[in-house]
Amino acid sequence: MLYFNCDYMEGAHPAVLQRLLETNLEQSFGYGEDSYCDRAKEKIRQACGCPQAEVFFLMGGTQTNAAVIKGYLRPFEGVIAAESGHINVHEAGAVEACGHKVLTLPQRDGKLQAEELSLYLEAFFRDPSSAHMVQPGMVYLSHPTEYGTLYRKEELTRIREVCRSYRLPLFLDGARLGYGLAADRADLTLQDIASLCDAFYIGGTKVGALFGEAVVFPKGGPKGFFTLMKQQGAVLAKGRLLGLQFDVLFTDGLYLEISRHAVAMARRLKEILRQNGCPLWIDSPTNQQFVILDRAMRDRLEGKVSYEVWQERPDGGAIARFATSWATREEDLAALARLLKE
Amino acid sequence: MLYFNCDYMEGAHPAVLQRLLETNLEQSFGYGEDSYCDRAKEKIRQACGCPQAEVFFLMGGTQTNAAVIKGYLRPFEGVIAAESGHINVHEAGAVEACGHKVLTLPQRDGKLQAEELSLYLEAFFRDPSSAHMVQPGMVYLSHPTEYGTLYRKEELTRIREVCRSYRLPLFLDGARLGYGLAADRADLTLQDIASLCDAFYIGGTKVGALFGEAVVFPKGGPKGFFTLMKQQGAVLAKGRLLGLQFDVLFTDGLYLEISRHAVAMARRLKEILRQNGCPLWIDSPTNQQFVILDRAMRDRLEGKVSYEVWQERPDGGAIARFATSWATREEDLAALARLLKE
Amino acid sequence: MLYFNCDYMEGAHPAVLQRLLETNLEQSFGYGEDSYCDRAKEKIRQACGCPQAEVFFLMGGTQTNAAVIKGYLRPFEGVIAAESGHINVHEAGAVEACGHKVLTLPQRDGKLQAEELSLYLEAFFRDPSSAHMVQPGMVYLSHPTEYGTLYRKEELTRIREVCRSYRLPLFLDGARLGYGLAADRADLTLQDIASLCDAFYIGGTKVGALFGEAVVFPKGGPKGFFTLMKQQGAVLAKGRLLGLQFDVLFTDGLYLEISRHAVAMARRLKEILRQNGCPLWIDSPTNQQFVILDRAMRDRLEGKVSYEVWQERPDGGAIARFATSWATREEDLAALARLLKE
Amino acid sequence: MLYFNCDYMEGAHPAVLQRLLETNLEQSFGYGEDSYCDRAKEKIRQACGCPQAEVFFLMGGTQTNAAVIKGYLRPFEGVIAAESGHINVHEAGAVEACGHKVLTLPQRDGKLQAEELSLYLEAFFRDPSSAHMVQPGMVYLSHPTEYGTLYRKEELTRIREVCRSYRLPLFLDGARLGYGLAADRADLTLQDIASLCDAFYIGGTKVGALFGEAVVFPKGGPKGFFTLMKQQGAVLAKGRLLGLQFDVLFTDGLYLEISRHAVAMARRLKEILRQNGCPLWIDSPTNQQFVILDRAMRDRLEGKVSYEVWQERPDGGAIARFATSWATREEDLAALARLLKE
Fold first, then answer.
1. CATH classification of B14-253 is 3.40.640.10, yes or no?
2. How far is CA C40 from CA C8, C17, C68, in A?
3. Which pTM was predicted?
4. Phi first, then psi: what are they for D209, rounded to 5°?
5. Interface ipTM > 0.90
6. Is A226 on the interface with C (CB under 8 A)?
7. Which of A263, B200, B232, C320 is deepest in the core (most CB within 10 A)?
């Protein structure tokens, strides 16, 4: 069976695991107060071009999103997101559990539009009953989006400007950030993101780590963020494990290198699927590919190729998501190509 | 100036106030443990045809909605509502502050549709990732709706059936319930509502009381509801004040009588507005009337007639809400008619 | 039966009720945007000597405490209170429901001590693991306390100094504030309180109103406090009712006048009880009196005099609380004296 | 430098890491739906003698405590704990962040007493104002406690009986459970615990794993616990990592074996410290040892031996905690002994 279901089916990049093995019996203090974390933070600051950034390590995406959002908002404020945003759909109400509403705007290819954001905010503050409503308190977006798409630099810059006018912090969910940075048509660099956002995170779980996300606050984070993380159950006792993984990933450009591999594999995957009559549902430049499979194709793949059904279609077909990752092998794609040619 | 902005511009029905005056120096125990509350509960149970119902008195709608919803839901559950539902729009995130997501469905004339509810629930539980999503835990609807419209008995019955299949409690927000019961085309009685819903409230604030809402749980309420009310700050120290008001309102049919007056006034209001060239935006059988005012009409009313702008229109006109209440006087409508004829 | 159970057994002071009656059919906008509220706020600002103060009206004590505390704290912060503080004991966890821990210190006659507060804070911030603990974020005290006692000006000033060193807002729960201001030995005036506290409330429910508390933020309140109140279900639709009551109470010194009456009644009550062999449990200068009743005395009072059992004693006696109020009549005390002489 | 600060200074037991290495590139589905988790759950069920138990894997102690407590309580309920309980002290208010009060009872050697628990509950439900107070909803205890002490089987059985009378779930925090099971004087087995508690967790982070805690609900857990975990950010994407670690630890008795080693090391440590004039502060049979160090001893250890200062003493001495773990080596203790003899 060939698996393309998601980008977290394997463990960690071998270099990460090797380092874990070598240092396993070293002793260090807990909760992130160790030299591995210090080193990893320093490398991330350099990669972001932000010597003053505050960096924190958490274990997974849902807890990272909840902690950052809780860190910024006052109780009566909500977070603006595209209706397809991960926090609005697949995090079991983690934001609401912190007391905050997710204020949704329509998505366009999974993205927020600066223009719509601006119109919404303008209308909100003009509404005489706005004091009776959840106040917009920050903006969340994901890059790559849940549909694998990317913001152009110009798009993010315009969103940034709207945020600035309304004094709303801008938070970028980078669960798959590597695959966004490494995409062909990408024009947003890590430095761009650090200069345009108030907070973002560099996903490790889906990009080479066993687990772990690195939150970056380029201009400093919300007061008391460590204690808030602790309260959320998001502080790892053996914090060193997080520091070590990001230290390896940010040494000699490994994070980008493995991301580029995943994107190259995704490009190949896309070609194979198109050549075999599966139209794209959306044109994604990153490691997630969305194609339309008809009934016959689903039957052919049954029991041989595993993917995620994104949406069932009335005719028995489906929109399917295929994901590659740092761990996808050329031979897997070759096998897929062969299988489809038969 | 003639005011038609809302249905809570005056104090209480004179009979209510008179009773407050007469009993002012009586001594009673606090928090609802008094004979006025006992009597009012008994009368409400009778009016609902539910001798076993549990009844609680709270001070206002937002706190009532939040307490009932918090009372029913487990932390990972959300409440289904029409996107126009009051809890989703004008309660400043009170439900989310309790940790719960409002799961919205499209509204049709302000109403939920049984069919759409059913399709949503079916799709939700078929989705293999549903365990990662907020679980639907109850259904909220308002009657009359925020648009003044009413559920037919058949509509509510079908929603009830969907709720039953999925074991979801059904909660009806009756902030303006009197005006719904008294409407011309209404075919839902208080007894019907009590037999179809797991919880509902009988609005006092907008229907003759100074303030107060009576929550009815026909088959008994969630465990510990009094303590939950206390935690929400929704227990009035001088609970007698709430009991007394509902006692008066539910004596000799006063609640329905004053509601009928408001509806009659609304009917007259609607005629006046239509006869003077203001088309209806929605056809409401209750005390709230929504009409389209063009620019010229708005100018004519300026400084003479006060109403609520529901939605601005690009051409300078507006959708306007006019509300009558138990306190609306015939001479106010006569004055409006004169003014529009000039 | 003579009732001394609490200070909220009757309705409102007749002047308040009279004014409600006179204005009942006046129309006004909702949610506190009316001239009664404006006027009451202005009078309260004057009485406090704070022309810049922000004033808000809420319905009851629990919701007021929760809203103010939620307004000030960040999610990982708690509120320091005496272990006997109302928020720690009798509010059903309203503060915790907002996500915040109540950090308790021992009480001395119901009061916090500046010295203990200082030692606690010093130790907290010296503790190397303090980042793993709930951060002290504000200080709550009640005046009069739950035991009827009062802070001396010098005590409150010293607490204020500790708060200032640690930048902790100081919040005074004045549910019975009038009875504190009117006490014989009181040396804290309303102006003192306004100059020493960041937030406090002037209790109406127990001091002449039907219901209502006036929160005062002498130097301005937390951002978005109105929306936070709305979210907490603490905004009254007919906000005018709150403004009107405080307008009456703060006209011609009525609030203090009726408070002085209650305190005089309490003084007389205390004498009667002591002269009849009931030792004081605590020496309270305000409207709540705590005495020790032995078994025999409890039997004598049974069915004739009602009071609150504060604490059962193993010998069948009890610590009992007797409360007077603005509504206590001289003849009630005369009746009590007669009854005890028999 | 010799480090005895805590039991999570190293990585994982080599067998755990070896298995991670071997399986690193295997593909598996996320979120715990993999064969490693299945296998580990089965082994844990067998070790507990509970074939019907539900088992869940989480990442750390704070999030586990919060999730289990949130899973059991209704909003107006609190959790009873010793005042020294971890949830009350060092979890930054994680329980309160879920809306629940921690209801504290005095600790005796870090333990709750059945008798005190019973008296508290009896008094609570006899109090006529109990409906205004946080309702006791479950009981939390830690075993070993924060002081390294253990419950005797008879003690836990009596607590269980009190819980049963009041229908309160009993939850045991086993962050260091292995060290409790392996202690000399222990008479509580894993099967005992499973038969006496409604929920408990088997700590991995401090007992041989990189991270991870296994929650066991012997009679089945609260409804929807997986979604609640997800909401709390407590579901690991690569859930396999947790299953795999517990699979290794529960194969061939490894968990108990390495725990016994730690306890043997602690016994040796205790002897060394006592023989060198450091009196015990508390007599712990597990891996944490608490001794009193005088000023001179602290000076001697300075820069050579690292431990945790539990409490500073006015004379410059301190109560110190020394912890051993599965990773403590005999030569470390030999080095300590030599150093103290010099």
1. yes
2. 22, 16, 20
3. 0.98
4. -95, 165
5. yes
6. yes
7. B232
